[in-house]
Amino acid sequence: MAGTPLLEVHGLDAFYGDFQALFGVSLRVGQGQVVAVLGANGAGKSTLLKSIAGLMASPREAICLDGEAIGSLRASDVVGRGIALVPEGRRLFPSLSVEENLLIGGQLGRPGPWTLARIYELFPVLEERRSQPSMSLSGGQQQMVAISRALMSNPKLLLCDEISLGLAPIIIKDIYARLPTITAEGISLVIVEQDIVQALTAAQHVYCLQEGRMVLEGTPTTLTREAISAAYFGV
């Protein structure tokens, strides 16, 4: 990857109390690039995203954004620097409407292209349901709200944790079809996935985690399915 990456993670360890979840994990994400992080349940994928997003304590120098060390920053400060997380399970505010959830995402007032009007252009169904309680939507529509809420912060980097989890294949295909529109605005994506096929279709670079360690990386064109399966399952 030429030049300074937008995001660089170097030698990241992560702990839950005495339990070590990540062991010296490193990855790079370029400007406007889609990077997929693959791995089975418990591989450390969500822990990696939480660490990048400031939800878990990290050494300052272990995570750099635009060449600046941010590993020790609080999550609120990380969002202000331009990193937004779409969490596993969506985590919408159940007492708020669709539009109220979206407006919360834009509270920082970061400049950028993502406004309510632009969100409704990306996901027209959300405009139709903007006044409905967020939890009254289907699972796929809730995922659209979660992605849109993160976009409303106008991030440089969007972290997507298991965006296809529990969704019907047609909905997954629909959501993935919108990703090029997002990256066209210069936003970089890190997609954590168990769906290998979707990840390889969307990403320009792929990493594979196994039991907290990065065991494989490359491009979808250079990595064989056999190598990915072996890294994924540890066989």
What does this structure look like?
Helix content is 34%, strand content 25%. Helix 3 runs parallel beside helix 6. The longest helix is centred in the C-terminal third of the chain and has 15 residues. The protein is globular, with a radius of gyration of 17 Å. The two termini are 29 Å apart. The mean pLDDT is 90.
SSE layout:
Blueprint: E1 7-16, E2 19-29, E3 34-38, H1 45-52, E4 63-65, E5 68-69, H2 75-81, E6 83-86, H3 98-105, H4 116-122, H5 124-128, H6 139-151, E7 157-161, H7 169-183, E8 188-193, H8 196-202, E9 205-210, E10 213-218, H9 225-233
Parallel strand pairs: 3-8, 3-9, 6-7, 7-8
Antiparallel strand pairs: 1-2, 1-4, 4-5, 9-10
Q: Shape from CA axes?
A: globular
Number of helices: 9
Report the mean per-residue pLDDT as an integer: 90
Order of helices and strands: EEEHEEHEHHHHEHEHEEH
Radius of gyration: 17 Å
The biggest beta sheet is recorded as: 6 strands, mixed
Number of DSSP E strands:
10
User: Helicity level, as a percent range?
Assistant: 25-40%
Q: Report the portion of residues in β strands.
A: 15-25%
Distance between the termini: 29 Å
